[in-house]
Amino acid sequence: MQIESHRFLITGGASLIGLRTAESLLAAGAREVVLYDNLSFDAPDGALAALLETGRVRLVRGDVLDAQAVETACEGIHGVYALAGFMSAGIGKQPRLGLEVNVLGVLNVLDACVARRVGKLVLASSSAVYGYGAIGGAITEAEPLRTHAVPAPPALYGASKLLAEKLCQLYRTEHGLDYVALRYSTVYGERQHYRSTNALYIIDAYDRVARGESPVLYGDGSETKDFVYVGDVARANVLAMRAQVPGEAINIAGGKPLSVRYLAETVIRLAGARVEPEYREAPAAGFRIKTDAPFHYDIGKAERLIGWKPEVPIEEGIARLIAWRRDGTPR
Amino acid sequence: MQIESHRFLITGGASLIGLRTAESLLAAGAREVVLYDNLSFDAPDGALAALLETGRVRLVRGDVLDAQAVETACEGIHGVYALAGFMSAGIGKQPRLGLEVNVLGVLNVLDACVARRVGKLVLASSSAVYGYGAIGGAITEAEPLRTHAVPAPPALYGASKLLAEKLCQLYRTEHGLDYVALRYSTVYGERQHYRSTNALYIIDAYDRVARGESPVLYGDGSETKDFVYVGDVARANVLAMRAQVPGEAINIAGGKPLSVRYLAETVIRLAGARVEPEYREAPAAGFRIKTDAPFHYDIGKAERLIGWKPEVPIEEGIARLIAWRRDGTPR
What we know:
- The structure is a homodimer.
- By secondary structure, chain A is α/β, with parallel strands linked by helices.
- Chain A has helices at residues 16-27, 46-53, 67-73, 88-93, 95-115, 152-175, 200-210, 230-242, 260-270, 300-306, 314-327, and strands at residues 7-11, 32-37, 57-61, 79-82, 120-126, 137-139, 178-184, 186-188, 216-218, 224-225, 227-229, 248-252, 258-259, 278-280, 295-297.
- In chain A, the strands form five sheets. A seven-stranded parallel sheet of chain A has the order 3-2-1-4-5-7-12, with helices on both faces.
- In chain A, helix 1 (16-27) packs across helix 8 and helix 7 packs parallel to helix 9 (260-270).
- The radius of gyration of chain A is 19 Å and the shape is globular.
- Chain A starts with 6 loop residues before the first strand and ends with a helix.
- The relative contact order of chain A is 0.14.
- Chains A and B meet through helix 5 and helix 6 of A and helix 5 and helix 6 of B.
C-alpha cells in the first residue's frame, strides 16, 4: 500500500514506537495519521505536541477494548498499525486486562478493518513468540514457541502475540484482510519507558548511573539480548505497509547478540561515569527473562521481503537515549 | 488431594469428558460432583440423567464467562476441573467467543478458586500445545509449540491452551494455587461429538459407514494421530487430583501413532461393513490438521508422576463407541 496521500491509524499511537512511526509516515508523505490511544501508559509530551502541531496528526483518545470506538476511528483509514498492547511485566500484574488488550483488542481492530474496509494491517508482534529458555543461535521466523520452564509473564506475553498473529491469519483466510506481522525484538530509544523487562538493561542502567549507582546484572553478565533502535522499527513499519507481503511474519531486530555486560559497560562509558556493573544472583522481586545461549533474531527475511535492515548501531542508539534522558527534549 | 468425602466441580461438566469424570469421581468416593455447564454444546441425555439420579451429582447451569456465577458455584468445593472450552473448529467459526471461553473462562475459574479457597485445580489442556506440522517421533512435555504453516484454527486453539496453562502457572506463583495441567491427545468414546476435528476420523467415519458410504481420508492415509479413550482420560483426571504434582503439565494420550487409514479400516471392520476408505486431495471446506511425520505423545511422565497409563486399546474403544452409536443407550 502506498503511503503518499493515504490516511493511517495507529493503536497505541502515543507510545515509544507509535510516535516515531507517525513521524516516519509523515516524512513518507502520508496525508494524515490518527493516533488512537487511551493514554494509560504514555502521557502527552513534547514529541506528541510537535506531531499534533503539524496539522496532519490527530489524537483520538480511545481504548482498543471499545470495539465501537475503534471502528468509528477507522472510518476513512487506508492502513492500520496495531501497536496497542501490554508487555510481559504488565500481563503478570494485570493478566485479565493485559490479555484482553493483547487478544480481544486485536480482534476489535480486525473487526474494524473488515467493517470499514481498511486496506491493510501491520501487526506489532514480538520476538517473544519464540519464547525463552532453550533458544540460541540464529532464530528465523520458522522457530516454534518455547515456554517450557519459562516464567509465566513472558510466556503469557509471547502466547498472546502468537494468538494475535493467528487471528490476523484467520481474518486473512475468512475476510481477505491483507496484513503483515512484524516481530520486533527489544525496542529501545528516546522516550524509553520502564515497561519492557529487557529494555531495563539500558534505561534502568542509565538511570542508576545518573544517580551515581551501579547498573545491576544478574548472573555473570554473559547472557545476551537482541536490541533494535526505535527509529529503525519505525522505518520497518513504513516499509512493511508499502510492501506486498500478505500474511508474512517478519523479524525486525538488531540481528546480533549483545551481552548484558556489554550493554551495561556501554551505558557507563557513554554516560561518562566511573562505576562498575553490580552482579547479583537473582532479582529481589518479579521474574527474569532468561535464555540459555547467545542468540540473535535472523533478519534476512526482512531484507529480502521489505528491504529493511537496521541502520543505527547500539552505541549510537544508546547515546541518543542518554542525550534525550539528560535534556528532556522531545528528541 | 483425596477424593473420598470431598466435593468437586467440573466446568463443561455435561461434556464427553465431564460426565465420565463425574462417574469416576463418584466411584472413587467423592461426596458430591457439581457439573457446571451452559449446555450450549451438550444437551442433557441419559448419561446425565443417570448421574443426577445418584443424588450425589448436581447440575448448575452457568457460563464460565459469568465470573460471579463461577465463584458462587465454587463455594464449598475442594477441587475443580476446568474442562469448559472451545476446540479448533469452533474457534475458527467464533474466534471471539472461543478465545474468551478458553482464556478468560479459565481466568474466571482461577479467580473463583482463589476467592473460595478451592484446594486444587486440574486444567484440561491439550496436545495442541505442541502444534502441528513439523512434529514427529515421541513428543514429551518439553516440546515447544509449532504453528509455523499451520491453519489458524488449530494454532489459535493450541495457543489458547498454552495461555490457560501459563495463567495457572501465574496463579500458582502469585496466589499459591495448586494445579496440574493434563494435555489430552484426541479423546474419543461413547457420547462422541463432532467438534473435535481429529475425532472425526472415528465418528464421521462410522456415521458414513452406517449410511452405507465410505469413510473419507485426505492424502494417502499414512498420516498418524494419537487417540485416547475417554474412560482412560476420566481415570487420569481422578489420579491427577489425588497426586501431589503441583504445577506439572502431563501428557494423557494413547502413546502410539495410529494411521488414519488404520482407523478407517478398523471402523469399517468393527462395523461389519464392506466399503473401502475414499481418498481425497483436500477437504471441500474448512481446514486440515496435518503433521509431517508419524508421532505419538510420550506418556512416561504420566506413569511416573500419577501412575497412569491407558488401558483400553483402540479397537475396544472404537467397538464401544459403535455400540453406543447403534443402540443409543447412555453407555
